[in-house]
Amino acid sequence: MDTPPSLLEMDSQLSELIRVQEWIDALVNFYGLGEETRFAIQLCMEEALANVVLHGYLSEPGHPIVIRSWASDSALYFAVEDKAPPFAPSAPDSSNGGSPANLESITPGGNGIRLLHRFVGSLVYERLSHGNRLTMGFPVARDKNASV
Question: How much is the pLDDT for 96?
Answer without folding.
Answer: 44
